[in-house]
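Re-running SRCR domain-containing protein to confirm reproducibility after the cluster update. Everything else is unchanged from the original entry.
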Amino acid sequence: MDSLILFWTQVILLVSTGSGILGQSPGDVRLVDGSSTLEGRVEVYYDNLWGTICNRGWDSTDSDVVCRQLGFQVSLSSPSFGPGIPTQRIWLADVQCESSDRRLNECVTDGQWGQTSTCPHNNDVGVRCSGRV
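Result of re-run:
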């Protein structure tokens, strides 16, 4: 019985830490460190790692795309939810989405993934979305 409990505990930990068991794809997004599922620091999945996004060039259209991608309505604001983990990658900066974009990886950026050396984690993007679509 103990081995069965240990097995299910490990499965739950794998799923809750986003280790790929749920099949993340490059460009998937999530919100972390908010007080509800509607808000948090934006993290994007790329190269098998979750990373943050620099707020340089970020606007409400970019926030709207993140909210829509997560199945929410438009964004209400883009507050700060604190910096990401210092060793975590900052994947994107200078994101420019169009209102027709459905996923963050459809948006134009000013550089390549991970090329954001001049942007510290205290500039990580956060969003607050309105309810489910």
